[in-house]
Every structure is written in C-alpha cells, then in structure tokens.
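Bench notes, afternoon.
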Amino acid sequence: MFTALPRVPYIFSFSQRDALASTKAVSDVVVLDSLFWPRIPPFVVRPTGGRGESVLFFTGAGGYGDQVMAWPAAKFLHDLGYKVHVLCDPGNDHLWGWFPWVESVLVTPVALSEVEVFDHLALYAYVTNVDEHGGQPHPTDHLFRLMGVDPATIPEEKKRVKPPLSLGHLSIRAGAPPQLGLVQLSGSNICRRPTPERLSKVLNRLVKEVPLTWIGLHDVEDEHTKIAREVLDVRINVPFDEFVGLTAAATITVGPDSFLTHLRGTLGLPGVAIFGTHDPAIRTRYYPEISPVWERRACPSSPCSIFRRTFPKYLCPPSAEPRQECAVIGAGYDSVVDVVKSKVSELSS
C-alpha cells in the first residue's frame, strides 16, 4: 500500500503510471501528470572516474532477466569509483540487495526530493526490449553505450556479474536432490511461451529420457502447471532465495529466454535455453555455459524481435486460427530434449 503526501511530487514507473491513470479514484486527485525522463541531463561516464560521487541507476527494461543484464553496467560504475545506488520497480529489489557494492536500493514510487540528493542520475526507462527492429545490441552493451562507454573496450568477463550466494542459498543448494533438473514451464511474454500441449510432450520426454529429478518452476497457476503436474513436481512462485538455491544446485536447467536462463548464465553453470523471436546471440553472448536452441527456419521472418503481448497480424506465417505460439519457439521445444540429453551426457563424461 502506497500513501502519497499531498502536493509532494513523486516519480512513478511507466507501468505504475498506467495503473494510476486507469484508476478513477486516483486519477481524480492527481494535480499534474508529466514525463520526468526528458528533463534528465544525459549521464556520461568521466574518463577520470567517479571520485566518490553518488549515482542513482535505474533500468525499467523489464523483469528479473533484464535486471541481471544490467548488473555489469552498474558494477562498472562502482569499479570506476562511483557510489552506486539503485532505483527499481517493486519486486526487482531482490535482484540488487545482495551486492555489497550497491549502497542502497530505492523502489518506485519515490519522492522527487529523494532523487535530487544524488550527484548523478543514470535512469534508463527502456533499454532494448521495446525496440522491435532488427539489429538490436546486447542490452548490457547498449547500457554501456548510453553511459558513453564503448562496449568493445570492456572485457567480456566483465559483462556478466556472478552474484554471491548467501548462507540461505547455500543451505537450499545443499538440501536439493543430487541429480536435479530444473525446467521453467513458460515465459511471461506470449512470444516466449509454448502451448500447453507442446509442453506436455516435452516434459514427458524429459522425464523418460533424461534420468534426473525434474522440478518445474512457474509463477502462476495455469494450464502449463496443470499439465506439468501430470509428470513432475511443480513449484509455483517459489520464494526468491529458494529459486536461487535450486538454480545453483541443478545439474541442468531448461527454459525460455527468462530469469532462470540469465541467473544460470551469470553463475557460470550449464543450461539449455529455447529462443523464438530473438537471436540468442543477443541474450546469451556472455553466458558461455548456456546452450541455445533456435530453430529459426520455422519462420521466414525470424528473428523479428517481437516484444508485444499479441502476435503481429502480418509478420507471422499464416495460420488457420489465431496464433497461440511463436513458430520458432514451438520448433525449438520439439528439439530441445535431444539438446538436453547431449548436454547431460557431456557433463557426466
């Protein structure tokens, strides 16, 4: 519950602003609503470093996976001598609170006066997710560019940040099954989601052909979880520490371009990721242990970098009925079990 003080200006994220605008009881008491982002002077990294100055860093690109890809840019500022404070959307604070080099974490909405105390504002409402054109850069590289740093000058090992595991994470890892396979049942975006029927076929094959203890992870109760429960243990919206501990414990992970893949990649552990609309080179370039599956031949428009919540009307291949699944991600799920088997065999040899 958020209670605003009267006549105090606050900064909201775009998603929060949209929610407020659609709530009449709230919109009726808003005196003025205007964009803050265009008024912020561009933040450019000094060649001489930060000199102990404070910088408030924010990326509103999306969920957990996007925050993970922002870690290297924020850590780079710390290494240059800036005191890094982080602003984030509600729920994303878990992704920043465990780093000792993060001075503080603020969560939107935040009073304008709290933002004005910082020496610098490095606030990026969007990075690449809403750019649906071809030729997208890796989000980490794009953040470096926005800060005035040539990403080619940054060593690749500095473009991923391995999070420190707490005692709680280590305890969960120690208590996990010794031969554990994790599978994220679906992505939040419809273009990263298999149909329940296809997921059922994949899970049945995984359980039969890859001799691990399989756990399915998902954030909501839906058709995907209903189908998954027929063949394996399913955990819904697990606590963050449990998610991290299980991810660190697993022999292999399987899922779409989402948090499980990104966390696994930063930990330097093997995983298999199924891609649809995006070229995996955009997202897994700095995760050498992640094996991408990308059946781009399934669609003549691939890659299309679609981020929207519905399928584009003219870009997707013709379908007799409204499309329920990206053709490329569907084909990827059909072939993913063979990739997982090969990867597990390689790990055990």
